[in-house]
């Protein structure tokens, strides 16, 4: 266990006990929500609801083969009724972060807001009703730290704190809605799930969000703002709105202006500390270099460099992982080959490819271990099926070589 891991373990334990102690203070009990309300509650002048896109039905376009191959615990929900896209402003609104799986948005009159709050349980591998948010199990909440002006929330659920995919799709994409209503410059502070990694800092800086405007979730458990702005969720059940993918693409890529797209890209997992290693990656890389592949470790590149790199590709190959989020930077027609351990198969990157008009392919590879949920699946190593990969490349690159 690294010193950083120890620090986080101690911090989590201290946070747990501070929550318990806070509940025993009488003055803190008045801060606990007394019920649940919706963003459409009538006669509530403290809730401003601004709709950008009305509710609609989203249906995934996946092959029968992929649907069948998806792991039992990760079967795609093919059709979802989405609530549309909106921005809600709460006068004197509050945010209380219990842990990575529970976040409560609370009105000035002490109600948890159903659509804006987040609660998730790994035991059922999904969302639970707002009434089950952990905030209702507490005896009381610590006094909120108050911020003058407008705070815009980029909190997107627990995954956005730790994973690049969720950070980009669930958090950064929300800026697209803020910009769409023309109120980006009105925001005084941005509440973010984390500010630890280079990509956290690079992406926020890219939008001109300086460190003095950033509030980190872990540093302020309970926050109250004169005006709290919260958007609809930008991804539900791994259905990716096209506007969110387009926003990321247009925000980070530059016009090609006739520049050739010619790169064959292999995304290496050689820098993966624990999860989903390719056990025979050295052998695979040797074979790929013969085709002229550019081998990259994404941990060594900036987000802007990743955007340019993927934007210049004609084919992207790699094992399933957060690095494939960068497919949003590709140009239409780019070919994609995603390698899965045969015990952990998902559809999310295929949906991104569909929204960006990319040509998606996948291969199942022998894997170690087994999985009963997503957390287990993320840890499984695989052995690249090199003959199958070479056969797929020969087929996909034949038109390119012929041209």
Notes on the structure:
This protein has 403 residues and is of the alpha/beta class. It has two domains: 3-239, no CATH class; 253-402, Rossmann fold (3-Layer(aba) Sandwich), CATH 3.40.50. 29% of the residues lie in helices and 25% in strands. The chain contains 13 helices and 19 strands. It has helices spanning 3-22, 26-29, 64-69, 159-162, 164-172, 174-180, 198-206, 242-252, 281-289, 303-311, 348-355, 374-377, 386-402; strands at residues 35-37, 47-53, 56-59, 79-82, 85-91, 94-99, 102-106, 111-113, 118-121, 126-127, 145-153, 189-192, 214-216, 222-231, 263-267, 294-296, 313-319, 335-341, 359-365. The strands form four sheets. Strands 2, 5, 6, 7, 9, 10, 11, 12, 13 and 14 form a ten-stranded mixed sheet that branches. A five-stranded parallel sheet has the order 16-15-17-18-19, sandwiched between helices. The model is unreliable at 1-8 (pLDDT under 50).
The gist of it:
The protein is α/β, with parallel strands linked by helices and 403 residues long. The chain has helices at 3-22, 26-29, 64-69, 159-162, 164-172, 174-180, 198-206, 242-252, 281-289, 303-311, 348-355, 374-377, 386-402, and strands at residues 35-37, 47-53, 56-59, 79-82, 85-91, 94-99, 102-106, 111-113, 118-121, 126-127, 145-153, 189-192, 214-216, 222-231, 263-267, 294-296, 313-319, 335-341, 359-365. The chain has 13 helices and 19 strands.
């Amino acid at each position: 266990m690294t010193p950083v891991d120890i620090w986080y373990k101690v911090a989590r334990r201290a946070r747990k006990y501070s929550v318990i102690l806070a509940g025993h203070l009488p003055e803190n009990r008045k801060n606990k929500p007394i019920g649940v309300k919706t963003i459409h509650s009538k006669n509530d002048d403290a809730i401003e609801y601004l709709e950008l896109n009305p509710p609609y039905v989203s249906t995934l376009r996946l092959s029968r083969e992929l649907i069948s191959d998806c792991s039992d615990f990760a079967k795609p929900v093919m059709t979802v009724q989405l609530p549309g896209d909106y921005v809600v402003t709460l006068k004197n609104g509050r945010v209380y972060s219990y842990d990575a799986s529970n976040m409560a948005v609370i009105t000035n009159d002490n109600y948890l807001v159903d659509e804006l709050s987040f609660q998730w349980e790994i035991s059922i591998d999904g969302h639970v009703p707002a009434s089950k948010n952990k905030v209702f199990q507490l005896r009381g909440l610590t006094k909120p730290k108050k911020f003058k002006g407008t705070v815009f929330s980029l909190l997107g659920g627990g995954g956005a704190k730790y994973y690049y995919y969720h950070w980009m799709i669930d958090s950064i994409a929300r800026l697209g809605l803020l910009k769409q209503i023309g109120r980006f410059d009105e925001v005084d502070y941005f509440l973010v799930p984390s500010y630890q990694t280079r990509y956290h800092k690079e992406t926020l800086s890219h939008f001109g969000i300086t460190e003095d405007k950033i509030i980190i979730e872990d540093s302020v458990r309970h926050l109250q703002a004169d005006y709290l702005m919260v958007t609809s969720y930008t991804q539900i059940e791994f259905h990716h709105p096209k506007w969110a993918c387009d926003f990321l693409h247009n925000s980070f890529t530059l016009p090609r202006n006739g520049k050739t797209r010619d790169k064959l890209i292999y995304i290496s997992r050689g820098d993966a500390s624990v999860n989903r290693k390719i056990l025979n990656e050295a052998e695979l890389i040797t074979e790929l270099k013969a085709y002229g592949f550019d081998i990259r470790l994404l941990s060594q590149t900036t987000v802007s460099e990743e955007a340019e790199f993927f934007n210049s590709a004609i084919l992207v190959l790699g094992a399933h992982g957060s690095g494939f989020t960068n497919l949003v930077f590709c140009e239409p027609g780019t070919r994609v080959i995603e390698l899965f351990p045969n015990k952990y198969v998902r559809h999310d990157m295929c949906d991104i490819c569909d929204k960006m008009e990319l040509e998606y392919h996948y291969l199942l590879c022998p894997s170690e271990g087994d999985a009963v949920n997503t957390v287990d699946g993320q840890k499984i190593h695989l052995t690249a099926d090199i003959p199958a990969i070479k056969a797929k490349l020969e087929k996909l690159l034949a038109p390119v070589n012929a041209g």
